[in-house]
Amino acid sequence: MPVARYRRIADDIRARIARGDWAVGQSLPSRRELAARYSVNEQTMRLAYQLLRRQGILEGEERKQVSVAHPAAVRTLTDVDATWPYSSETTDTRPRPATEELAERLGVQVRAQLQHETVECLDPGGRSAMLVSTWWRGRRRPHARFTAELETVELGEEQAHALGLLVDALAYRVLRTRLDEHDAPVETADLILPMDRWRIRLG
């Protein structure tokens, strides 16, 4: 079976990167420019770029400039309740009504008004390493312990945009719920970790 043209182009770009035509961090030409060089339409180049982003060869958002990706630093998450040791940015603090899932996790009524924040945790190089969305009722309270569950999810548009990945890319989702001394939930959070940047080892 013949190899799709966009895959052949992706292979050629990968080979050119390997021989140093483009260095790590360097921007590639626009899709339009490379489409002209390869004598294909822009949709074919879009598929090639998309494949290379998925493989971690390129980084950058859809419809924006892409560059040669730095090798992803793979970290191991062992403590989901630990403080993030590097810089972070709070990107959203809008209150939210409790969904059925959040109501169950927090022991509140569906559509109860919850406080909320989403924090983007950055690695030492300034790239997004993890997103943490937290919800709680009333004022924040200290916790005595926590529970955690692990699953995989496909990234939504906002998450993919923040992490510089493709929509529907797979990520780990850690559901962390903090409990008080009476085992009542005081807050719950989703930790979204790109699968190409993390290993998970929960005790």
Describe this structure in words.
The protein starts with a helix and ends with a strand. A hairpin with a 5-residue loop joins strand 6 (113-122) and strand 7 (128-136). Helices cover 24% and strands 33% of the residues. The protein is an alpha+beta fold. It folds into two domains: 5-68, Winged helix-like DNA-binding domain superfamily/Winged helix DNA-binding domain (Arc Repressor Mutant, subunit A, Orthogonal Bundle); 75-200, Chorismate lyase-like (Chorismate lyase, 3-Layer(aba) Sandwich). The longest helix is centred in the N-terminal third of the chain and has 14 residues, at 5-18. The chain is elongated. Strands 4, 5, 6, 7, 8, 9 and 10 form a seven-stranded antiparallel beta sheet that branches. A two-stranded antiparallel sheet has the order 1-2. Strands 3-11 form a two-stranded parallel sheet.
